[in-house]
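Narrative of activities, Objective 1.

The group set out to show that a structural description can be obtained from nothing but a protein's sequence at a throughput compatible with the screening campaign. Below is one input-output pair from the validation batch, recorded exactly as produced.
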Amino acid sequence: MTRSIPDYTASFNVEGLSAPVDIVRDAYAVPHIFGTNDPDVFFGLGVAHAQDRLWQMTLLRRIAQGRLSELFGRSTLAYDDFMRRLDLAEAARSSLSAQDDKTREALNAYAEGVNAWIEEINKGALGRGAPEFFLFESSIAPWRPEDSIAILKLFALQSSGQFQEEVLRARLSMLIPPARVSDLLPASFANDDRNIPRYFDQFPNARLGAIRFEPAELSRLSPLRSPNLNSSMLAWAATRNRTVSGNAVVAGIFDTQLAIPSLWYLAGLELQVGGVIGATIPGLPVILSGRNSSLAWSGTTSNIDDQDLFIEKLLDTGSREVLTPAGPRPIVSRPSVIRIRGEAPVTIRLERSENGPIVQSDLFGLSSVIPEGHIASLAWTGLSTNDTSISALMGLMTAKSTDQGFLAMRSFIAPAMKMIIADEENLASQFVGVQPIRDPRNAFAGSMPAPGWLSESRWLETGPGDTSEDAELSDPNSQTQIDRDIDNQAPSPEFVWADGRSFRLGRLTRLLEARDVHTRDGFVEYQKDTISPAARGLLPLIAKNLWFSEPPAPQGTLARRRAEALQMLADWNGDMNEHMAEPLIYTAWMRALQQRLINDELSKMAEGLPVIQTLFLERVFRDVDGASIWCDVVQSEEIETCDQIASLALDDSLLWLEETFGRGDLSTLRWGDAHQTALDHPILSWSRGFSFMSNIRLPFSGGDTTLFLGFSAGASEDPFQADFGSTFRGVYDLSDPNSSVYIASTGQSGHFLSRFYDDLGRLWRRGEYVPMYLERQLVNAGSVGTTSLLPQRN
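Output recorded for this entry:
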């Protein structure tokens, strides 16, 4: 098994190169690739990715293609079924011809590099390339250029949670009034839930069916993410007149599901226009956040609603037809065979209506909102068969100015984001990507599945989210540029912030406004900030009538522990430090409070809302639009107050803490005992024999709304486990090409026996960073080895 750990000092004669290539790995095994031309450099990146992350690359490809069941059997059939119906792999194949010549050349060279390493594995008996391949058949299909496009589309899919939220909103609307839906799922974008009809109004025959939850161990194989756990980005920058160095400083964060290896892989490419360094995804020959010698870039996920579900009405015409605004129309279909390990293959039909692919799935309860005699289709901008997003990123990497960078990004499709680009003179931001243009007559406004046969439900067109041709240039005398498109509704002064991400934005805004000038190290400190703005805003609201009002109580009683907990929280500054007790008490209380508020109204459906909804709690305790009604227990004759429920919930949390951590002094509790990183391997974690070597669980600071993110999915077994976090962080100072710093949540290697498997992870959890250099001399100084690739001579 150790033979699959690559020798970073070896030389290989390979086919596909025109000249020698050096892969110089720095002290943390970050590859810096040097060649005489760009295709050879991309070839080298393909080799480096395959050396360190071949299993991860092939797994991502299988998820995108809907081919997991070939390895994992029936347990992943629902995932494959969904992805086959989306037909993402075919859309990627069709998009290949839409790329510019430079990008196609790079994709081809990259694929040749991956395949060259696969050939070396077979030729040199290099342990099948990764330990995971010993668990499955060892043959590895050659890498193709369209595989990289498919992985970028998969990343876009996991960055959008709109389809899942539409289903949840529809289910909620069948139980509670629209205003109460607004409490749990705040109005998104330009929508106002109070003016949106209930799902029953459009579909009287709809029945609220049961929902099937996927096993937790399969979540890292899912092509979809829960609405609260979709991948996201956050970027900000300071102009040159507001930095100590006199040049712009750019900061970028990528938030994704925690796993090992990380989604991110650091790399440097020495292209003909100069060096480029930053974060890649194994399988993609582009740097999504980073810098070159002239400019730096990163982005913030825009909450553009880029997905819509449509309910299609089947017609009893003897053929497979659906109703459209123009009358009956046939469904286009073709067969697709899903091979299942240990079982006979399953044949499904890939169907499309005029609105998009037909999706038949139990994932996230989709089937539970489809009325009898109907089917569902999905429209999504990322389904484009002329997706030039990878060409846009390729052009950005080689741009020399903000103008060139944004010109390249005009062809970007998905995921939609607000991009910040800075060069030595300018700092600018602009929306990049495509968004749907909806008919203003659409009753659901994209918030719930809509009737596919109504013309007003359909998209009018898709187009760029920003109608202005030019990027928004920042005034050099202004303080900072923050990508604020986290939500398109400005927070009201009377609220803390609009949602969890906006809590983070609010904290960041206050940190930036507190200083007149900024530095790289200052931006690093902001990324490491563990103050919870949610705690600072919610505790005075929820506990204001409980603080200092508790009567004296004997030692050892629940009343005494309640008073002690309230006193500790009153003295707490909101720091979610792993060594402190207060974050654990606060989070346990908020979890118990939400359960008490929603369980009586939602019953079993409350299981689908395990994440603490900070805005919901705020709305209830501010009584926004009558939201305090949640405090009244529906089944009781008495009308309970919110103070009563808050006190009972605090008792619930204290009892839970006692049962879980023992009956000791509350001050001895530690947030890090409950809040640990869920850096689990997507496959090896299933095996007791491998999991202790492959998985990493460490105490972790931060929380759901801190900049140093450690988001908990709320699973009943480990409700405060950190399942989602800032898996990549970078800060780029344009005053010095060698002063930028980066960190990813795990090491470069995906091999659990490699010393580079978790070395970066230990730095990441402590808030430390590593440098990356544009100058080869500095890269060589700390190198752990150089892999030499030589053209094979016939």
